[in-house]
Amino acid sequence: MQYRLMQGTNRPWRGVFREAFEKLQHPDGGGMTLNHPTGKLADYLPMLDFDPRVLGIKVWNQLTSGFGSSRGFYDHSGGPSLHFYKLWDDILRTGRRCWGFFVKDHNTYGRGRNVLLVPKLNAMNATEREAAALRAYRRGTFFGSVASLAASETGEVIAPYDRSSFRFSRIIVKDDALHVSVSGSDPKRPNVQIRFITDQGIASIVDAAEAAFPLKRDASGRLEAAFVRVEAFAYPKTH
C-alpha cells in the first residue's frame, strides 16, 4: 500500500477508499489491501467490486493466527481455522480477481513475504525501485511465501530470518496448459511438491520441481475451472 490509514477511522469505507486512491504516489502502482479479513464473504465482495485498485486480501498474517482465525488475533481455540485461506478461494470462485498477500505484520522475526517479480533494480534509483515494486503489486506479479525461520544452535532466531531461496522460477500459460517450475530448495528440505487448486478443490498433486496442469474447456470453448491456484512445498524426509 502507498497510503496507510490508521485503524478506527469511524468513517464509511467507500469514502476512506476514495481518499486513499486520490493520494496514491504512483497512479499505475500499488493500491488497497483488505487486511485481517475475519468477516464473511459478503463483507468483502462490495469492496473488491468498488475499484480495480482494491487488490485483494491478506491470506497469511503471522499476527492473526497465520492463515487466519475468524475469532481474531492469536485465537487458536479449536485448532487453526484457515479462515483467510478458505475465504480467498471462496472469493476466487465468484470469478473475481483477488490477489493474496502474505505478511508478518508487526512481528520483527515473523514469517510471511510477498516475493515481487520486478526488473533488475541495481540500475534504478530509490524512486524508480519503489515505483517498480508498486507496479508489481498492482499487476499481481508476485507470489506469497511462508518459510521456516533460521535459528542458531541455541534456538535464537538469526539472519536471514524467514528469507528463502525456494521459489517459483516459472509460471506460464502455453498451449492450454499452466506450466510451473520451482527452484532453490533447502538441503534440509529436499522433497518438493506442487499442487494445483481449482474451484473444485485440489485438482492435481505432482511430487517434482516441474509440473503442468491442463486447462480444460467445455463444449462452448469456455475454461471449466473458475480459477487455478498453485502451491509449492519443500519439506524434509519423513522416514
Write the layout of secondary structure elements.
Elements: H1 13-22, E1 32-34, H2 41-50, E2 54-61, H3 83-93, E3 99-103, E4 113-116, H4 126-139, E5 142-145, E6 167-173, E7 177-183, E8 191-198, E9 201-206, E10 210-214, E11 228-235
Parallel strand pairs: 1-2, 2-3
Antiparallel strand pairs: 4-5, 6-7, 7-10, 8-9, 8-11
Low-confidence stretches: none
Order of helices and strands: HEHEHEEHEEEEEEE
Give the % helix.
Answer: 10-25%
Rg: 19 Å
Structural class: alpha+beta
- Put simply, the count of helices is 4
Mean pLDDT: 89
Tally of extended strands?
11
Number of domains: 2
| Strands side by side in the biggest sheet | 1-2-3
**Terminal CA distance:** 44 Å
**So what's the overall shape?**
globular
Largest sheet, strands/sense/barrel: 3 strands, parallel
Q: Give the DSSP E fraction (strand runs of 2 or more residues).
A: 25-35%
Please tag this protein with its features.
Immunoglobulin-like; 239 residues; 3-stranded parallel sheet; 11 strands; alpha+beta
Characterize the structure shown.
With 239 residues, this protein is an alpha+beta fold. It folds into two domains: 163 residues, no CATH class; 75 residues, Sandwich (Immunoglobulin-like). The chain is 19% helix and 27% strand. It contains four helices and eleven strands; from the N terminus they run H-E-H-E-H-E-E-H-E-E-E-E-E-E-E. The strands form four sheets. A three-stranded parallel beta sheet has the order 1-2-3. The chain has a three-stranded antiparallel beta sheet with strand order 6-7-10, with no helix packed on it. It has a three-stranded antiparallel beta sheet with strand order 9-8-11, with no helix packed on it. A hairpin with a 2-residue loop joins strand 8 and strand 9. The longest helix is centred in the middle third of the chain and has 14 residues. The N and C termini lie far apart (44 Å).
